[in-house]
Specification:
By secondary structure, this protein is an all-beta fold. Helix content is 0%, strand content 48%. A hairpin with a 5-residue loop joins strand 2 and strand 3.
Length: 114
């Protein structure tokens, strides 16, 4: 699972956010970078819902100018986007499911995947 969060505001902004960690708990972060990304090994069915959210805030004594910073959050699972939002304070959420494929005759039993 890959989490991405980035803002379109100018310099002097930091990103403050939270995401679902590998245990299914909420983890928070605070970074002066305009882009934040991390990969987390999520195991289904131990974790069934993942969430990423955040907002841009002044970094130190910086003052937000006339441009209101917009953020975009993206959730990737196995290389595919499963949730994407763009707003002042976006929240991306995805429910994970197990998929079972129908085996071809003579093939091994199906297995669950993320």
């Amino acid at each position: 699972m890959t989490y991405e969060l980035f803002h379109s505001g100018g310099p002097g902004l930091k990103i403050v956010g939270a995401y679902t960690d590998e245990r299914g708990a909420s983890a928070s972060f605070d970074t002066p970078q305009s882009t934040w990304t991390t990969q987390v090994a999520i195991v289904y069915p131990d974790v069934t819902t993942v969430v990423l959210g955040g907002n841009a805030a002044p970094d130190g004594d910086a003052v937000i100018g006339t441009q209101i910073p917009q953020l975009q959050c993206i959730l990737w699972v196995d290389g595919s986007i499963v949730a994407q939002r763009h707003s002042l304070s976006p929240r991306c959420e995805a429910k994970l499911t197990g998929t079972v494929t129908t085996p071809k005759p003579g093939s091994p039993a199906p297995s669950a995947s993320r």
